[in-house]
Automatic annotation (TrEMBL):
Binds 1 zinc ion per subunit. It catalyses: 7-carboxy-7-carbaguanine + NH4(+) + 2 ATP = 7-cyano-7-carbaguanine + 2 AMP + 2 diphosphate + 2 H(+). SUPFAM superfamilies: Adenine nucleotide alpha hydrolases-like. Homodimer. CDD domains: QueC-like. Keywords: ATP-binding, Ligase, Metal-binding, Nucleotide-binding, Queuosine biosynthesis, Zinc. The keyword Zinc applies. Catalyzes the ATP-dependent conversion of 7-carboxy-7-deazaguanine (CDG) to 7-cyano-7-deazaguanine (preQ(0)). ATP binds at residues 9-19. Transmembrane segments: none annotated. This is 7-cyano-7-deazaguanine synthase.
């Protein structure tokens, strides 16, 4: 039987690299994306393009979580909160408070829904592109968080109770952004189809925290980012 994996696919660099890792590991890919009212909803078009690239377009699911926009409280879901630009907030990985781009409970919700989907389709793994090194200090990107969710999944699912728990795979968790880019290029991940910009325009801004970290990663890897920017 073919082994299956659900990949939480945003359409960004990290989640697309996870698609590459899951494919390399021999999994049949089940990409899962979320429309949660994010400012950069254009990323869902990129997710669809990535899913098509890997031949999984028909299996690609997009789940609507509109209530996150109703809740607000994040620069990504609340129009009253601006996305910080260059110099207004530390680059990811630097000391500082949890930034306004943190979406409360996002990865907890994503992993819960991915668990339901994985158990439904008979997947044995869930891939998520969390990172504990070059990241914004989000609490739901830490290995401690992943370990606790893994424990809960084993208790809360039929397969877990039966001794066949679904595993959460986090291949990027201890990689620098440059390391992620290098690995993605090795696996021929289609970075030209991705976006990481928080502002949600066709051309990446180059100023937001996510753009800056992405550009920094490509530069440190000695490579050129294939997507277009208003400014690099």
């Amino acid at each position: 039987m073919t082994k299956k994996a659900v990949i939480i696919l945003s359409g960004g660099l990290d989640s697309t690299t996870c698609m590459g890792y899951a494919k390399e590991a021999g999994y049949e890919l089940y990409p899962l994306s979320f429309d949660y009212g994010q400012r950069h909803v254009i990323e869902l078009d990129n997710a669809r393009a990535v899913a098509d690239y890997y031949g999984t377009g028909e299996r690609h699911k997009v789940v609507k979580l509109g209530f996150l926009r109703e809740f607000g409280g994040s620069a990504l879901t609340d129009d009253a909160i601006d996305v910080p630009k260059t110099g207004e907030e530390p680059v990811q990985g630097e000391p500082g408070e949890i930034p306004v781009t943190y979406v409360p409970g996002r990865n907890l919700l994503f992993l819960s829904i991915a668990t339901s989907y994985a158990e439904t389709v008979g997947a044995e793994a869930i891939y998520i592109g969390v990172n504990a090194l070059d990241y914004s200090g989000y609490p739901d990107c830490r290995p401690e968080f992943i370990a606790k969710v893994q424990e809960v999944m084993a208790l809360a699912t039929k397969v877990g109770v039966e001794g066949k728990p679904i595993s959460i795979e986090t291949p990027l968790i201890y990689l620098t952004k440059a390391g992620i880019v290098a690995e993605g290029m090795r696996m021929e991940v289609p970075y030209h189809l991705t976006t990481s910009c928080y502002n949600g325009e066709a051309e990446a801004c180059g100023e937001c925290d996510s753009c800056r970290l992405r550009l920094k990663g490509f530069a440190e890897a000695g490579l050129t980012d294939p997507i277009t920017y208003k400014q690099r």
